[in-house]
Batch of 3 targets.
Target 1
Amino acid sequence: MLMNRVETALINSPPRRALQRYYEVPALQRLGGSLPHDARVLELGCGAGYGTELILAQFAAARVDAVDLDPAMVARARRRLAGYQGRVRLMVGDATDLRAALDAEDASYDAVFDFAIIHHVPDWRAALSEVARVLKPGGRFYFDEVTAAALATRAYRWLFDHPTEERFSGEEFLTELQHQGLRVDPRSRTHLRGHYLLGVAERPHSGQEAR
Ligand SMILES: C[S@@+](CC[C@H](N)C(=O)[O-])C[C@H]1O[C@@H](n2cnc3c(N)ncnc32)[C@H](O)[C@@H]1O
């Protein structure tokens, strides 16, 4: 589901970008560590490409493929990331079908990033299934999500458009990651009265069990 105008303005505002750069990214780095040299990364729901730039600059990803359902957002991201030619591929597409979106093969990415997009996807379990499919063994999923508790607040209901059914709590999101065979870092947890979830999960190497 696409963002409405209010959310588009808020998500691309200087305070939200500062939060992403100075709080979310460092927190994800502490949880998941740095990326391997030459890392190939996928970003779901890249929006205007600010998070993509942080993945390139702060995580030092070698290459980022990024997908967003909204052509207007992808156009903004293309403009923002024009200086990273050769390191970025931007596509319009759906996070629940990454083969159709960007021909994503099984086990093809060292890391997948989700900066607050999966709560926009009605079939969020299908998106997590795609994350698990495309991660290489040892690959990591870095996530920053908005939970059902936040979406139920008056502010979220009045200001923004989100799927009204099939929302997830932090616990349900983490349980589904395990169900998809990913190993969730035990430090992954919700913040601000359960409204926001920050964490990392890893696709185990064969022979290792997800827990
Ligand atoms: C809250 S915004 C986050 C954007 C960006 N990740 C950021 O943090 O600035 C959610 C984004 O997810 C995109 N989106 C919604 N549903 C999607 C889907 N099924 N597949 C891919 N992107 C989707 C929207 O178009 C929007 O750009």
Target 2
Amino acid sequence: MDNVTVLGTGAMGVALVRTLIAGGMSVTAWNRTLDKLETARSLGASCENECAQAMLSSSIAMVCVSDYGAFHEILKRTGVASSLSGRLVINLSTGTPEDARHADQTVRDLGGSYLDGAILCYPGSLGSATAKVLVAGPEDDFARGQRALTCLGGGLRFLGPNIIAAVVLDLAFLSRLMAVVFGTIHGANICEVEGVSVAEFAALLPEDDRSRTIAEAIHDDNFHVGPMGAAVDVSRGALVRLWQQAERAGIGDEPICLMLDLVNRAIEAGHEKKETASVITVLRAQRAH
Ligand SMILES: NC(=O)c1ccc[n+]([C@@H]2O[C@H](COP(=O)([O-])OP(=O)(O)OC[C@H]3O[C@@H](n4cnc5c(N)ncnc54)[C@H](OP(=O)(O)O)[C@@H]3O)[C@@H](O)[C@H]2O)c1
């Protein structure tokens, strides 16, 4: 049985462990906070306390941590750099084009092979027929990782050798998602102010779409973050990444700034950890003035 190492067992890392095992792979897992290995262990993964030991267990390592800063901190852990030679690292953490280039160069300088990827679905959907996972890098490295990557979902796409392609498409996809989120909040604001039930608006939206979750949360005035949701601070993080890309590339940042202003006001009002739909409360307060 092929073995794959998974570094990082947060929400998405655990989903990687689950889908790889379901796909017939054996998995070795490591996480910086050792307590958080328990779910991976209960799913059938072998767990290592030392990152380098986990690396040595497989020829392929999938990494899914908060950001590329965390990715580089992992590479600096004892024995990890020297374990990279001949191994394939598939980084599925979210980042920017510069992050992808830097990670690729660093791993290759240490003698490893590198694929850069992005996961465009929630952890609960990983492994499903529609789960979108993007991967970029050399074709022969993709061929090495293909069997493991195929376990991650029916929407796996190999984008070829341009190492920044996955993070660029991830940003573009995120931009569309943010427009849907804030467009839906504005739509609910129109309904509320004109006296038409937001439930009627929600009923018009596709059942498994983020827009429906947003409209229903606003109708119910329930801003608890559900499995298909995201908190205001998570949306802010996504918008900051989009803003940074716009600044660096010299493209217009106006749409992003409008959305950022709204999330910043929601955070000031204390909604940081609430569902992003809670931005409606900022718009409701504005109506009175
Ligand atoms: N969750 C989603 O809906 C979703 C969807 C698409 C993409 N993603 C992407 O998937 C990645 C992981 O997200 P997640 O939801 O799994 O986040 P999470 O549950 O917050 O887990 C974060 C992981 O990163 C690790 N980490 C953070 N800093 C580290 C460091 N300095 N050194 C080593 N490990 C470090 C954490 O280890 P500790 O446990 O030790 O803190 C944990 O394993 C992110 O890039 C995210 O953007 C997530």
Target 3
Amino acid sequence: MSRDKAPTVKFLNVTKKSPENPQSATILQNISGEVPANHILTVIGPSGSGKSTLLSLCNLLISPDEGEVLIHSKEVREWTVTDLRRRVGLVFQTPTMFPGTVLDNLNLGVKLQGKTLENPEKWIEKVGLPPEILKQSANDLSGGQKQRVALARVLANQPDIWLLDEVTSALDPTAAREVEEWILQLQSKENSTVLWVTHNLDQARRVGHITWLLANGRLVEALPTEEFFENPQEDVTRRFLIGELGGIQA
Ligand SMILES: Nc1ncnc2c1ncn2[C@@H]1O[C@H](COP(=O)(O)OP(=O)(O)O)[C@@H](O)[C@H]1O
Ligand SMILES: [Mg+2]
């Protein structure tokens, strides 16, 4: 399938101030950029640089103070929250499980849409968990298991934009690679658009088509991924890539 180049997520002069300290603290400062349909954007940057905030703006968890966020050319605040969240799935950095079994958790989103999840075993196996786990209480899972269930829960709803916040960070390297491969396969099958925050620079390079570096709430570099890593334009990027700005922090 050919790539549709129309921008699917677009930030226009977006500024987000701290809710606690709006006069002085700015979390994101004048961010502009776009992610074309069917592309994977990887977002990297030191801890506290605004990566999670950037994702939260795309599904109305928070609203910008200035500027606009366009999803499929429509400003986020013009969407109804339900419609928007059906199209835009966010997998949080720290997964939350709802009371009930793993199966209940997987069914959550699809139930809201009046459907039942076909073949839940398939989804759970794809994130590297055994089907027996479907019967277990979700809150008894380990952090890594919760992270995988949260990912399966969101992607099973078939959103067309995926916001992935450090989704493999709680997994061991082998499991992280397996889950990463599965995400890539599913992405190319479903032609979804992905904003993928990661502190793993190798992962950002492997999976991205475009890469952004955030530092102190500013978008300091935005380039096609290969170029970003091979030939960054900004000194800040070069320093980040060699670990001088806290490159390995989440
Ligand atoms: N709800 C909030 N209230 C106040 N400050 C916040 C809030 N959310 C995030 N921040 C601050 O904004 C900055 C960016 O946070 P975040 O987007 O989580 O960064 P990252 O994901 O890159 O680590 C941090 O300094 C954080 O403390
Ligand atoms: Mg974060």
